[in-house]
Design brief:
eight-stranded antiparallel β-sheet, 17 strands, globular, about 350 residues, about 20% strand, alpha+beta
Length: about 350
């Protein structure tokens, strides 16, 4: 006989609500409010450096160097317009990626390094992403793999298609008519416990009105189809609950919580940083690359085309894609910065309300 569905209660750990996050937090971790993520990242790395030696110390020193370099590129980009702006922002974003890779044990400086991205000859608005290389460290490929999606064969990606996978510009992308129906489904994810406080589970909730705005029939596809069942009813909401409940105690709750966050990492859930913290969306038509990789790839195109494709970048900036490019350059670098700092430090960094 199937277990009767009971209403859950919000899960707490040491009086703090368990929160969903794209970062592998520990149970009860709170958001880090910072209007200066550069200082927070540098301070975090300096703290680790003071207790490190040998090869571990060297990787942190590299990470600190790339952090400083990334900040310099970001600062320099503030004072110049497109197309030069794209080049500076790409190198700033690339150095944030290098910092992240250093802290995830990719041995930079040990071999020739390659961006992993090229502009193919004879093709416009196209970027080629290459898989791992035998004779070089492929930065982009390593980045994608660390974020959970390995590049196994060369991929050719249209710049416009890349922008369709950047969450913070999805609204204007849709409004400008580049896509017929929105593919990002806004969701709320709750950690819950049963009345007996013996089992932990999650519920994913979205407004019923989203059925008219997005193709919600795609939600129960792939890994999500096996993971979720219908959840406890709520007025004007669609609710899905994790099919399996996790038995827990206060001693093992932190491990189980982090395991659940890891499970959710394969469900194509993407964040957007807002004045109220991160909001989450299920990408109902995800690409072959991680969300942040598309941001880096898009900025690579703008930066490289500015240097090597003068007529192509001129046509782009004078054509109907200019509003989309402007929005991308305006919004994405800051989103990328906060998310990369969060992933590198394993702390969820958000903008203080007073800084908005």
């Amino acid at each position: 006989m199937a277990r009767q569905l009971e209403e859950g209660k919000l899960a707490l750990y040491k009086y703090n609500k368990l929160r969903f996050s794209f970062v592998g937090l520990s149970a009860g971790d709170q958001q880090i409010l910072t209007s200066d993520p550069w200082s927070f990242l540098s301070s975090h790395l300096q703290g680790l450096l003071s207790h490190s030696r040998g090869a571990n110390r060297e990787k942190i020193e590299r990470a600190l160097y790339f952090t400083s370099l990334a900040e310099d590129f970001y600062r320099a980009a503030e004072s110049v317009p497109l197309p030069a702006k794209g080049t500076l922002l790409y190198y700033g974003m690339l150095d944030l990626v290098k910092c992240f890779l250093c802290m995830n044990d990719v041995e930079l400086e040990s071999a020739i390094e390659h961006h992993g991205l090229i502009l193919p000859i004879g093709k416009t608005l196209t970027i080629e992403a290459r898989p791992k290389m035998r004779d070089a460290i492929n930065i982009f490929s390593n980045f994608c793999e660390k974020l959970g999606k390995e590049i196994k064969a060369p991929l050719e990606i249209d710049f416009r298609q890349a922008l369709s996978h950047v969450p913070e510009i999805h609204g204007i992308y849709s409004n400008l008519g580049h896509i017929s129906k929105r593919k990002l489904l806004p969701v709320n994810i709750e950690f819950q416990v049963n009345d007996a406080h013996s089992h932990l589970f999650t519920e994913l909730i979205f407004d019923k009105e989203q059925e008219a705005k997005t193709d919600t029939s795609k939600f129960l596809k792939g890994k999500r189809e096996k993971y979720f069942i219908e959840g406890f009813p709520r007025t004007q909401k669609i609710v899905y609950r994790s099919a399996k409940r996790k038995k827990y105690t206060q001693e093992n709750l932190d491990r189980i919580y982090r395991n659940i966050l890891a499970e959710y990492s394969s469900f194509d859930i993407v964040p957007i940083l807002t004045k109220a913290g991160y909001r989450y969306y299920v990408d109902l038509r995800p690409g072959e690359l991680p969300q942040l990789a598309y941001s880096l790839l898009g900025m690579f195109y703008l930066g490289s085309a500015a240097r090597y494709r003068p007529l192509e970048i001129k046509s782009l900036l004078e054509g109907n894609l200019r509003p989309l490019v402007s929005e991308f350059v305006s919004l994405t670098p800051r989103q990328f910065l906060y998310q990369m700092v969060s992933l590198t430090t394993k702390k969820e960094c958000v903008i203080p309300f007073s800084a908005i």
